[in-house]
Protein backbone atom coordinates (compact mmCIF):
# COMPACT_ATOMS: atom_id res chain seq x y z
CA UNK A 1 0.00 0.00 0.00
CA UNK A 2 1.48 3.37 -1.05
CA UNK A 3 0.83 6.76 0.44
CA UNK A 4 1.53 10.25 -0.83
CA UNK A 5 2.25 13.42 1.06
CA UNK A 6 -0.60 15.91 1.24
CA UNK A 7 0.08 19.56 2.12
CA UNK A 8 -1.57 20.80 5.32
CA UNK A 9 -4.79 22.75 4.87
CA UNK A 10 -3.25 25.88 6.34
CA UNK A 11 -0.47 25.77 3.75
CA UNK A 12 -3.04 25.48 0.95
CA UNK A 13 -4.96 28.50 2.25
CA UNK A 14 -1.75 30.56 2.55
CA UNK A 15 -0.85 29.60 -1.04
CA UNK A 16 -4.32 30.66 -2.20
CA UNK A 17 -4.04 34.04 -0.46
CA UNK A 18 -0.58 34.59 -2.00
CA UNK A 19 -1.96 33.72 -5.45
CA UNK A 20 -4.77 36.27 -5.03
CA UNK A 21 -2.31 38.95 -3.88
CA UNK A 22 -0.04 38.26 -6.86
CA UNK A 23 -3.04 38.50 -9.21
CA UNK A 24 -3.99 41.87 -7.69
CA UNK A 25 -0.45 43.21 -8.10
CA UNK A 26 -0.35 41.92 -11.68
CA UNK A 27 -3.60 43.78 -12.38
CA UNK A 28 -2.24 46.99 -10.82
CA UNK A 29 0.94 46.70 -12.90
CA UNK A 30 -1.03 46.14 -16.10
CA UNK A 31 -3.24 49.14 -15.28
CA UNK A 32 -0.31 51.47 -14.54
CA UNK A 33 1.82 50.35 -17.47
CA UNK A 34 2.01 53.23 -20.00
CA UNK A 35 0.02 52.87 -23.20
CA UNK A 36 2.05 53.85 -26.28
CA UNK A 37 0.38 55.26 -29.38
CA UNK A 38 2.14 55.39 -32.75
CA UNK A 39 1.38 58.78 -34.34
CA UNK A 40 2.14 59.56 -37.99
CA UNK A 41 3.05 63.15 -38.85
CA UNK A 42 4.98 64.94 -41.56
CA UNK A 43 7.01 66.48 -43.04
CA UNK A 44 9.81 65.90 -40.50
CA UNK A 45 10.73 69.54 -39.89
CA UNK A 46 7.20 70.95 -39.95
CA UNK A 47 5.54 72.71 -37.04
CA UNK A 48 3.17 69.76 -36.70
CA UNK A 49 6.05 67.31 -36.30
CA UNK A 50 7.71 69.58 -33.73
CA UNK A 51 4.43 69.85 -31.82
CA UNK A 52 3.94 66.07 -31.64
CA UNK A 53 7.57 65.51 -30.62
CA UNK A 54 7.22 68.16 -27.91
CA UNK A 55 4.05 66.48 -26.64
CA UNK A 56 5.87 63.15 -26.43
CA UNK A 57 8.69 64.71 -24.40
CA UNK A 58 6.22 66.27 -21.96
CA UNK A 59 4.34 62.99 -21.51
CA UNK A 60 7.58 61.14 -20.79
CA UNK A 61 8.77 63.87 -18.47
CA UNK A 62 5.53 63.65 -16.49
CA UNK A 63 5.61 59.83 -16.51
CA UNK A 64 2.13 59.87 -17.98
CA UNK A 65 0.10 56.71 -18.48
CA UNK A 66 0.03 57.39 -22.24
CA UNK A 67 3.05 57.93 -24.50
CA UNK A 68 3.61 58.78 -28.16
CA UNK A 69 5.88 57.03 -30.62
CA UNK A 70 6.45 59.47 -33.49
CA UNK A 71 6.37 58.08 -37.05
CA UNK A 72 7.75 60.80 -39.35
CA UNK A 73 6.48 60.86 -42.93
CA UNK A 74 7.38 63.00 -45.96
CA UNK A 75 4.11 64.92 -45.67
CA UNK A 76 0.46 64.92 -44.54
CA UNK A 77 -0.60 62.70 -47.46
CA UNK A 78 1.85 60.00 -46.38
CA UNK A 79 0.74 60.36 -42.75
CA UNK A 80 -2.85 59.80 -43.87
CA UNK A 81 -1.81 56.71 -45.84
CA UNK A 82 0.09 55.27 -42.87
CA UNK A 83 -3.05 55.77 -40.81
CA UNK A 84 -5.26 54.19 -43.48
CA UNK A 85 -2.89 51.20 -43.63
CA UNK A 86 -3.16 50.90 -39.82
CA UNK A 87 0.57 51.46 -39.37
CA UNK A 88 -0.28 54.22 -36.91
CA UNK A 89 -2.80 54.54 -34.08
CA UNK A 90 -2.95 58.32 -34.48
CA UNK A 91 -2.14 60.73 -37.27
CA UNK A 92 -1.97 64.44 -37.95
CA UNK A 93 -4.03 64.71 -41.11
CA UNK A 94 -5.25 67.45 -43.39
CA UNK A 95 -9.00 67.54 -43.88
CA UNK A 96 -8.87 67.52 -47.69
CA UNK A 97 -6.70 64.39 -47.80
CA UNK A 98 -8.25 60.92 -47.76
CA UNK A 99 -8.58 59.26 -44.36
CA UNK A 100 -10.55 56.05 -43.94
CA UNK A 101 -13.84 55.85 -42.10
CA UNK A 102 -12.16 54.61 -38.91
CA UNK A 103 -10.47 57.97 -38.33
CA UNK A 104 -12.08 59.89 -35.47
CA UNK A 105 -10.95 63.31 -34.29
CA UNK A 106 -9.31 64.07 -30.96
CA UNK A 107 -8.35 67.70 -31.48
CA UNK A 108 -8.07 70.40 -34.13
CA UNK A 109 -4.45 71.53 -34.24
CA UNK A 110 -4.81 74.48 -36.58
CA UNK A 111 -6.50 75.77 -39.71
CA UNK A 112 -4.40 76.47 -42.79
CA UNK A 113 -5.89 79.48 -44.51
CA UNK A 114 -5.73 79.91 -48.28
CA UNK A 115 -4.28 83.43 -48.60
CA UNK A 116 -4.37 84.89 -52.13
CA UNK A 117 -2.06 87.88 -52.54
CA UNK A 118 -1.66 90.30 -55.45
CA UNK A 119 1.07 92.96 -55.63
CA UNK A 120 0.08 96.53 -54.88
CA UNK A 121 -1.29 98.25 -58.02
CA UNK A 122 -2.36 94.92 -59.60
CA UNK A 123 -5.76 94.82 -61.37
CA UNK A 124 -6.51 91.57 -59.51
CA UNK A 125 -9.05 92.26 -56.80
CA UNK A 126 -11.36 89.24 -57.11
CA UNK A 127 -10.87 85.54 -57.78
CA UNK A 128 -12.43 85.95 -61.23
CA UNK A 129 -9.59 88.31 -62.15
CA UNK A 130 -7.15 85.37 -62.04
CA UNK A 131 -8.31 84.15 -65.44
CA UNK A 132 -5.33 84.15 -67.79
CA UNK A 133 -2.91 85.01 -64.98
CA UNK A 134 -0.01 83.17 -63.31
CA UNK A 135 -0.21 82.21 -59.65
CA UNK A 136 2.93 81.50 -57.64
CA UNK A 137 2.27 78.48 -55.40
CA UNK A 138 4.20 78.58 -52.14
CA UNK A 139 5.17 74.98 -51.36
CA UNK A 140 3.14 73.59 -54.22
CA UNK A 141 1.55 70.25 -53.37
CA UNK A 142 -1.27 68.16 -54.77
CA UNK A 143 -3.47 69.21 -51.88
CA UNK A 144 -2.78 72.92 -52.43
CA UNK A 145 -3.47 72.52 -56.16
CA UNK A 146 -6.82 70.93 -55.30
CA UNK A 147 -7.59 73.78 -52.93
CA UNK A 148 -6.95 76.37 -55.67
CA UNK A 149 -9.06 74.32 -58.09
CA UNK A 150 -11.92 74.35 -55.56
CA UNK A 151 -11.75 78.13 -55.27
CA UNK A 152 -11.60 78.65 -59.04
CA UNK A 153 -14.52 76.27 -59.61
CA UNK A 154 -16.72 78.32 -57.30
CA UNK A 155 -16.15 81.37 -59.55
CA UNK A 156 -16.42 79.34 -62.78
CA UNK A 157 -12.81 79.99 -63.71
CA UNK A 158 -11.44 76.97 -65.65
CA UNK A 159 -8.36 75.62 -63.92
CA UNK A 160 -6.38 75.35 -67.14
CA UNK A 161 -6.73 79.11 -67.68
CA UNK A 162 -4.68 79.86 -64.57
CA UNK A 163 -0.97 79.06 -64.87
CA UNK A 164 0.90 77.95 -61.77
CA UNK A 165 4.51 78.30 -60.71
CA UNK A 166 6.07 76.64 -57.68
CA UNK A 167 7.85 79.14 -55.44
CA UNK A 168 9.99 78.86 -52.36
CA UNK A 169 9.66 81.59 -49.75
CA UNK A 170 13.01 83.02 -50.78
CA UNK A 171 11.86 83.31 -54.41
CA UNK A 172 8.65 85.28 -53.86
CA UNK A 173 10.15 88.77 -53.68
CA UNK A 174 12.10 88.51 -56.95
CA UNK A 175 9.20 86.74 -58.72
CA UNK A 176 6.88 89.64 -57.86
CA UNK A 177 9.44 92.31 -58.70
CA UNK A 178 10.23 90.72 -62.08
CA UNK A 179 6.54 90.09 -62.84
CA UNK A 180 7.05 86.34 -63.16
CA UNK A 181 3.81 85.88 -61.24
CA UNK A 182 0.64 87.93 -61.04
CA UNK A 183 -0.49 86.59 -57.68
CA UNK A 184 0.74 84.35 -54.88
CA UNK A 185 -1.12 81.64 -52.99
CA UNK A 186 0.18 80.74 -49.53
CA UNK A 187 -1.55 78.06 -47.46
CA UNK A 188 -0.82 77.87 -43.76
CA UNK A 189 -1.75 79.09 -40.28
CA UNK A 190 -2.19 82.86 -40.14
CA UNK A 191 0.06 82.94 -37.07
CA UNK A 192 2.57 80.45 -38.47
CA UNK A 193 5.72 81.05 -40.48
CA UNK A 194 4.74 80.55 -44.12
CA UNK A 195 1.84 82.97 -44.60
CA UNK A 196 3.37 85.96 -42.74
CA UNK A 197 6.63 85.43 -44.64
CA UNK A 198 4.76 85.33 -47.96
CA UNK A 199 2.87 88.55 -47.11
CA UNK A 200 6.14 90.30 -46.25
CA UNK A 201 7.86 89.02 -49.43
CA UNK A 202 5.02 90.23 -51.73
CA UNK A 203 5.07 93.60 -50.01
CA UNK A 204 8.85 93.84 -50.44
CA UNK A 205 8.64 92.86 -54.12
CA UNK A 206 6.04 95.53 -54.93
CA UNK A 207 7.23 98.15 -52.47
CA UNK A 208 3.82 98.40 -50.82
CA UNK A 209 1.37 96.26 -48.83
CA UNK A 210 -0.19 93.54 -50.99
CA UNK A 211 -3.80 93.18 -52.06
CA UNK A 212 -5.63 90.42 -50.17
CA UNK A 213 -7.95 88.74 -52.67
CA UNK A 214 -11.07 87.58 -50.78
CA UNK A 215 -12.97 84.33 -51.25
CA UNK A 216 -16.32 85.83 -50.37
CA UNK A 217 -18.23 82.64 -51.09
CA UNK A 218 -16.20 80.64 -48.59
CA UNK A 219 -19.35 79.63 -46.69
CA UNK A 220 -20.84 78.16 -49.87
CA UNK A 221 -17.62 76.29 -50.65
CA UNK A 222 -17.48 74.86 -47.13
CA UNK A 223 -21.10 73.78 -47.34
CA UNK A 224 -20.57 72.04 -50.66
CA UNK A 225 -17.11 70.66 -49.79
CA UNK A 226 -17.00 69.61 -46.10
CA UNK A 227 -13.24 69.07 -46.34
CA UNK A 228 -12.82 72.84 -46.05
CA UNK A 229 -13.87 75.36 -43.44
CA UNK A 230 -14.81 78.97 -43.93
CA UNK A 231 -12.69 81.43 -41.95
CA UNK A 232 -11.92 85.10 -41.69
CA UNK A 233 -8.53 86.76 -41.73
CA UNK A 234 -9.14 89.67 -39.40
CA UNK A 235 -7.93 93.20 -40.02
CA UNK A 236 -4.29 93.69 -39.03
CA UNK A 237 -3.50 89.98 -38.73
CA UNK A 238 -0.05 90.63 -40.25
CA UNK A 239 0.61 93.94 -38.49
CA UNK A 240 1.87 97.06 -40.23
CA UNK A 241 0.70 100.66 -40.55
CA UNK A 242 -1.58 100.76 -42.40
CA UNK A 243 -2.62 97.33 -41.14
CA UNK A 244 -2.35 94.24 -43.29
CA UNK A 245 -5.02 93.47 -44.36
CA UNK A 246 -6.79 96.82 -44.10
CA UNK A 247 -10.14 95.04 -43.74
CA UNK A 248 -11.16 91.55 -42.66
CA UNK A 249 -10.94 89.05 -45.53
CA UNK A 250 -13.04 85.92 -46.04
CA UNK A 251 -11.36 82.74 -47.28
CA UNK A 252 -11.38 78.96 -46.94
CA UNK A 253 -9.09 76.80 -44.88
CA UNK A 254 -7.90 73.21 -44.69
CA UNK A 255 -8.14 71.83 -41.17
CA UNK A 256 -5.29 69.91 -39.55
CA UNK A 257 -6.44 67.61 -36.80
CA UNK A 258 -5.29 64.61 -34.79
CA UNK A 259 -7.35 61.53 -35.56
CA UNK A 260 -7.43 58.18 -33.79
CA UNK A 261 -8.38 54.71 -34.92
CA UNK A 262 -11.96 53.94 -33.84
CA UNK A 263 -10.83 50.62 -32.34
CA UNK A 264 -8.68 52.33 -29.68
CA UNK A 265 -10.02 51.93 -26.14
CA UNK A 266 -12.15 54.88 -25.07
CA UNK A 267 -10.41 55.13 -21.69
CA UNK A 268 -6.95 55.47 -23.25
CA UNK A 269 -8.13 58.10 -25.76
CA UNK A 270 -9.87 59.99 -22.96
CA UNK A 271 -6.59 60.07 -21.01
CA UNK A 272 -4.63 61.21 -24.06
CA UNK A 273 -7.16 63.94 -24.88
CA UNK A 274 -7.18 65.26 -21.33
CA UNK A 275 -3.38 65.41 -21.21
CA UNK A 276 -3.19 67.09 -24.63
CA UNK A 277 -5.36 69.98 -23.52
CA UNK A 278 -3.76 70.19 -20.09
CA UNK A 279 -0.26 70.46 -21.55
CA UNK A 280 -1.22 73.15 -24.06
CA UNK A 281 0.62 75.92 -22.19
CA UNK A 282 3.80 73.84 -22.07
CA UNK A 283 3.43 73.09 -25.78
CA UNK A 284 3.03 76.78 -26.66
CA UNK A 285 6.36 77.49 -24.96
CA UNK A 286 8.02 74.95 -27.28
CA UNK A 287 5.89 75.39 -30.42
CA UNK A 288 3.82 78.63 -30.61
CA UNK A 289 1.48 76.97 -33.12
CA UNK A 290 0.06 74.96 -30.20
CA UNK A 291 -1.93 78.06 -29.23
CA UNK A 292 -4.24 77.24 -32.15
CA UNK A 293 -5.29 73.87 -30.68
CA UNK A 294 -9.06 73.75 -30.27
CA UNK A 295 -11.73 71.20 -29.47
CA UNK A 296 -13.77 69.66 -32.29
CA UNK A 297 -17.54 69.94 -32.30
CA UNK A 298 -18.95 66.95 -30.39
CA UNK A 299 -22.58 67.52 -31.36
CA UNK A 300 -24.26 64.61 -33.10
CA UNK A 301 -24.48 65.15 -36.82
CA UNK A 302 -21.40 67.37 -36.80
CA UNK A 303 -19.17 67.70 -39.84
CA UNK A 304 -16.49 65.46 -38.35
CA UNK A 305 -16.70 62.32 -36.24
CA UNK A 306 -15.16 62.67 -32.80
CA UNK A 307 -13.72 59.65 -31.00
CA UNK A 308 -16.01 58.64 -28.10
CA UNK A 309 -13.06 58.76 -25.72
CA UNK A 310 -12.28 62.36 -26.70
CA UNK A 311 -15.95 63.32 -26.60
CA UNK A 312 -16.22 61.93 -23.05
CA UNK A 313 -13.53 64.35 -21.87
CA UNK A 314 -14.72 67.33 -23.91
CA UNK A 315 -18.33 66.90 -22.75
CA UNK A 316 -17.37 66.37 -19.12
CA UNK A 317 -18.53 62.74 -19.15
CA UNK A 318 -15.15 61.28 -18.29
CA UNK A 319 -15.54 58.06 -16.34
CA UNK A 320 -14.00 57.79 -12.90
CA UNK A 321 -11.87 54.83 -11.89
CA UNK A 322 -14.82 53.20 -10.13
CA UNK A 323 -17.14 53.88 -13.08
CA UNK A 324 -14.65 52.27 -15.41
CA UNK A 325 -13.72 49.24 -13.32
CA UNK A 326 -16.63 48.92 -10.88
CA UNK A 327 -17.99 45.88 -12.70
CA UNK A 328 -14.59 44.21 -12.50
CA UNK A 329 -14.43 44.84 -8.74
CA UNK A 330 -17.86 43.23 -8.40
CA UNK A 331 -16.78 40.22 -10.46
CA UNK A 332 -13.50 39.88 -8.51
CA UNK A 333 -15.40 40.08 -5.23
CA UNK A 334 -17.73 37.31 -6.39
CA UNK A 335 -14.80 35.17 -7.53
CA UNK A 336 -12.90 35.71 -4.29
CA UNK A 337 -16.06 34.91 -2.33
CA UNK A 338 -16.40 31.68 -4.28
CA UNK A 339 -12.74 30.86 -3.67
CA UNK A 340 -13.16 31.55 0.03
CA UNK A 341 -16.24 29.33 0.15
CA UNK A 342 -14.35 26.57 -1.65
CA UNK A 343 -11.46 26.86 0.82
CA UNK A 344 -13.90 26.81 3.70
CA UNK A 345 -15.62 23.71 2.32
CA UNK A 346 -12.27 22.04 1.74
CA UNK A 347 -11.15 22.94 5.23
CA UNK A 348 -14.39 21.55 6.65
CA UNK A 349 -13.94 18.36 4.70
CA UNK A 350 -10.38 17.94 5.94
CA UNK A 351 -11.48 18.66 9.50
CA UNK A 352 -14.29 16.12 9.13
CA UNK A 353 -11.88 13.51 7.79
CA UNK A 354 -9.43 14.23 10.57
CA UNK A 355 -12.20 13.88 13.15
CA UNK A 356 -13.32 10.55 11.65
CA UNK A 357 -9.74 9.27 11.65
CA UNK A 358 -9.28 10.35 15.26
CA UNK A 359 -12.46 8.47 16.21
CA UNK A 360 -11.19 5.30 14.50
CA UNK A 361 -7.89 5.57 16.34
CA UNK A 362 -9.75 6.14 19.58
CA UNK A 363 -11.92 3.10 18.80
CA UNK A 364 -8.81 0.93 18.40
CA UNK A 365 -7.57 2.09 21.78
CA UNK A 366 -10.96 1.28 23.28
CA UNK A 367 -10.92 -2.19 21.73
CA UNK A 368 -7.47 -2.73 23.23
CA UNK A 369 -8.72 -1.76 26.72
CA UNK A 370 -11.80 -3.98 26.42
CA UNK A 371 -9.70 -6.91 25.18
CA UNK A 372 -7.53 -6.85 28.29
CA UNK A 373 -10.57 -7.32 30.55
CA UNK A 374 -12.68 -9.62 28.35
CA UNK A 375 -14.19 -12.62 30.24
CA UNK A 376 -15.03 -14.89 27.30
CA UNK A 377 -13.68 -15.92 23.95
CA UNK A 378 -16.90 -14.69 22.32
CA UNK A 379 -16.17 -11.13 23.50
CA UNK A 380 -12.67 -11.39 22.12
CA UNK A 381 -14.05 -12.63 18.79
CA UNK A 382 -16.39 -9.65 18.68
CA UNK A 383 -13.56 -7.20 19.51
CA UNK A 384 -11.35 -8.77 16.87
CA UNK A 385 -14.16 -8.30 14.32
CA UNK A 386 -14.42 -4.65 15.33
CA UNK A 387 -10.67 -4.19 14.91
CA UNK A 388 -10.88 -5.79 11.44
CA UNK A 389 -13.61 -3.33 10.44
CA UNK A 390 -11.50 -0.36 11.54
CA UNK A 391 -8.59 -1.90 9.65
CA UNK A 392 -10.63 -2.26 6.44
CA UNK A 393 -11.90 1.33 6.70
CA UNK A 394 -8.38 2.66 7.20
CA UNK A 395 -7.10 0.54 4.32
CA UNK A 396 -9.79 2.04 2.04
CA UNK A 397 -8.71 5.57 3.00
CA UNK A 398 -5.09 4.72 2.30
CA UNK A 399 -5.96 3.33 -1.13
CA UNK A 400 -7.64 6.64 -2.01
CA UNK A 401 -4.69 8.56 -0.54
CA UNK A 402 -7.02 10.30 1.89
CA UNK A 403 -4.87 9.71 4.97
CA UNK A 404 -1.43 11.11 5.65
CA UNK A 405 1.63 9.04 6.50
CA UNK A 406 1.68 10.15 10.15
CA UNK A 407 -1.86 8.96 10.87
CA UNK A 408 -1.24 5.75 8.92
CA UNK A 409 1.75 4.96 11.14
CA UNK A 410 -0.33 5.65 14.26
CA UNK A 411 -3.04 3.24 12.99
CA UNK A 412 -0.37 0.60 12.33
CA UNK A 413 1.00 0.83 15.87
CA UNK A 414 -2.47 0.87 17.45
CA UNK A 415 -3.63 -2.15 15.41
CA UNK A 416 -0.51 -4.08 16.46
CA UNK A 417 -1.25 -3.33 20.09
CA UNK A 418 -4.90 -4.40 19.72
CA UNK A 419 -3.94 -7.72 18.12
CA UNK A 420 -1.33 -8.39 20.77
CA UNK A 421 -3.82 -7.55 23.54
CA UNK A 422 -6.43 -9.91 22.06
CA UNK A 423 -3.86 -12.73 21.61
CA UNK A 424 -2.57 -12.29 25.14
CA UNK A 425 -6.08 -12.34 26.57
CA UNK A 426 -6.89 -15.52 24.62
CA UNK A 427 -3.83 -17.25 26.15
CA UNK A 428 -4.87 -16.20 29.64
CA UNK A 429 -8.43 -17.47 29.15
CA UNK A 430 -7.11 -20.76 27.75
CA UNK A 431 -4.90 -21.29 30.82
CA UNK A 432 -7.81 -20.65 33.16
CA UNK A 433 -9.88 -23.22 31.27
CA UNK A 434 -7.01 -25.77 31.35
CA UNK A 435 -6.73 -25.80 27.54
CA UNK A 436 -3.50 -25.52 25.63
CA UNK A 437 -3.66 -22.27 23.66
CA UNK A 438 -2.91 -22.49 20.00
CA UNK A 439 -0.02 -20.34 18.87
CA UNK A 440 -1.20 -17.10 17.26
CA UNK A 441 0.81 -15.71 14.34
CA UNK A 442 0.51 -11.95 14.43
CA UNK A 443 0.66 -10.10 11.15
CA UNK A 444 1.03 -6.52 12.22
CA UNK A 445 -0.38 -3.85 9.92
CA UNK A 446 2.36 -1.83 8.25
CA UNK A 447 2.38 0.99 5.79
CA UNK A 448 4.02 0.24 2.48
CA UNK A 449 7.74 0.80 2.57
CA UNK A 450 8.08 0.09 6.30
UniProtKB/TrEMBL annotation:
Keyword Transmembrane helix: yes
Transmembrane segments: 12-31, 328-347
Keywords: Membrane, Transmembrane, Transmembrane helix
Entries under InterPro entries matching the protein: TRAP_TAXI
Pfam families with a match to the protein in the record: NMT1_3
Source organism, top-level taxon: Bacteria
Family matches, as PANTHER family: SLL1037 PROTEIN
UniProt-recorded name of the protein: C4-dicarboxylate ABC transporter substrate-binding protein
Organism expressing this protein natively: Alsobacter soli
